[in-house]
Amino acid sequence: MRGWWREIVGLVLPVACGGCGSPRTELCDECAAGLHAGPRRVRPAPEPGGLPAVHAAAPYENAVRAMLLAHKERGALGLAGVLGGALAAAVRAGAGHGGDAGPLLLVPVPSARRATAGRGHDPVRRMAAVAAAELRRGGTPAGVLAVLRQRRAVADQAGLGARDRKTNLAGALVVAEGGRRLLGVGGVVLVDDVLTTGASLAEAARAVRAVKPAGPGTAEGLRAAVVAASPSAFEINRN
C-alpha cells in the first residue's frame, strides 16, 4: 500500500528537483547531466576478494548522490527512469568483457527485508527493470532475474567500514531455489545502486559463483554495474 500511496502523492503534489531541490521540476537539466559523466570501470580501495569487474555511470556525489537518496529513501519514484537509464549505460560499458551468449540477466543485489518494507519499494529492482527495458530498446536482449535472497539477518551497512561490511555480509546471500537453472540461460550482470567498499557486490558474486553452471556466460565472465561509485573508486581508472 505504501508504494501505491507514494505514486499517487507524486502525481498530485508539487515536485522539486531530486538533485538540487529546484521547484516545479522532478529533475532539472543540470542535475540530469551529472549522470552522464561517462561510464567507466571502477575499483574500491582496498578491493575485496572476489569482486567482479564493475562499471559505474557517475561518481556518487552532489546531485547524483541526492537523486539516489531521494529515490531510495524518500520515494521519488519518478527518478527511476533516469537512474535506470544510467544503470543501462553502465551495463553497456562492461558488455564487451563477459563473453556472454544469450540475453543479459540483470541480477539485483537485495536490500534487507526490513529496509525494503520500510521504504515501501525495492529501489534497485525498480532501476534494474528500467535498465533492462532500455537495453532491449537498444537491441540488446535483457531481463531482470531477482534470484538473490538474504538467508540471515544483516546489520544496516550505513556507518560501517570496509572490514565490518565484509564481516556483516559474509555468507549472507544465497540463490533462491530454481535460480541455478535460470542463471544458465544468459550472461549475468550483478546490479546495485552504489559501489562504496564493494562488499555487497563481492558477496553477491560469491553466491552466484556457487551455483552458476558451466557453459556460455560462465561465472568467470561475471560482471557488475552500478549507477554510481565513490569518487575515489570512480577516479582510479580515469587515466
UniProtKB/TrEMBL annotation:
SUPFAM superfamilies the record matches: PRTase-like
InterPro entries: ComF/GntX_DNA_util-trans, PRTase-like
PANTHER family (alphabetical): DNA UTILIZATION PROTEIN YHGH
UniProt-recorded name of the protein: ComF family protein
Organism name: Streptomyces mutomycini
Classification lineage: Bacteria, Bacillati, Actinomycetota, Actinomycetes, Kitasatosporales
